[in-house]
User: Fold this.
Amino acid sequence: MYAFAMTEITPGPAPSGPPTDDPTALLLAVARERDKAALAALFSTFAPRIKSMMLKLGAGDALAEDLAQETLLQVWRKAHLYSPQRGAASTWIFTIARNLRIDQLRRQTNKPYEDLETLELASDAPLGNVLIERNQVIERVTAALKLLPREQSEVVRLSFINDMPQSEIAALVGIPLGTVKSRLRLAYERLRPLLEDLQ
Amino acid sequence: MINHHPDITTLMAFSAGTLDEAYSTVIATHLAMSEAGRETVRQIDAIGGALLTDEPEAAMSDSALDRLLGALDDEQIDVGRPERAPNALPLPLQSYVPGGLDAVRWKWTGPGVATADLPTRPGQKSRLMLLRVGGGRRVPEHGHGGQELTLILQGAYRDRFGVFATGDIADHDEDVEHQPIAEPGPDCICLVAVDAKLTFRGRLMRALQPLFGI
Assistant:
């Protein structure tokens, strides 16, 4: 069901393009220089993808677009808080979109993710420059996700992109909750060596 | 030193953002106490980042970029690093226990055992509560009606899985039965998230009934 989308991620043959195409470099330009052109470039890459993710929640076109817009506005507002040592730009933007999705759908009064972000900022440890590695990790994880058995990638996507609790995935796919968990666990074990390269 | 960590599928659900309020609060509180746990979640977050870059594109309306750029000048820049609240509890828990543990109003649940419900948004499928077990006291053996997350905030307890001390988390599914016994010394205080269908307190009361004739 996702096969068509997978063929059109990176235009051109080079796996890592010039610096201006690099999401992390763009995000740092927003952070350091308030570079609107860099934000526009991030918009063109991420807004349509965030909108696609939001549409999978059952959000209407207008709401999905608003949430994509708001994500990019938060990127502008929070860029100076981004630290490449903690993850690739795409990962950071995913977490912003995820937090907006939670606020929109669950209207929780607590803010557990923001609380943890605050803690992280308060305990800034100096780390080496791992900018390139972070982006390479994302490319490798993206490639590895495509190599997962379909039954594993299905539960991973339903969880992270479609925002489905594991119990709902079990009901949708028609498998016990324990099987959802074991498929997620297997997927994680496959991805783990790549994810641990983050360090 | 934290020895007991959440199940990886629980951390994946936290990273995906699909946990109920009670469960996500327990995990966030645990992560506030565990740098290793935060690093694991940072790694898992990259799955979301990779999937996002792999999403198909849903066309934005023609004016969307102009509207975004037009809005930027009015945007306030977030000031980071808000001051810590004057409360010794981990940050994700502070709004639930505003006066700290000393101000909690405990309900007697059994000999040496007390609980306090923490308010969550209505309509949740899970419940959040504090559990206090006196040093050397035991919680009656109990099963679980669903996933149960228990985070140790103070003191320690022991069961057949080992000793659980401050920062440790017990992540049990419905198949697990256990009988925690608080270690001698100060009260063991835990933050617990349970499936709302079968409340922990209700199950505790039932379990206590034949033992103590409550």
About this structure: Chain B has one domain: 1-214. Residues 35-53 of chain B form the longest helix (19 residues). Strands of chain B lie at 107-110, 113-118, 126-133, 148-154, 156-159, 162-165, 169-172, 181-182, 188-195.
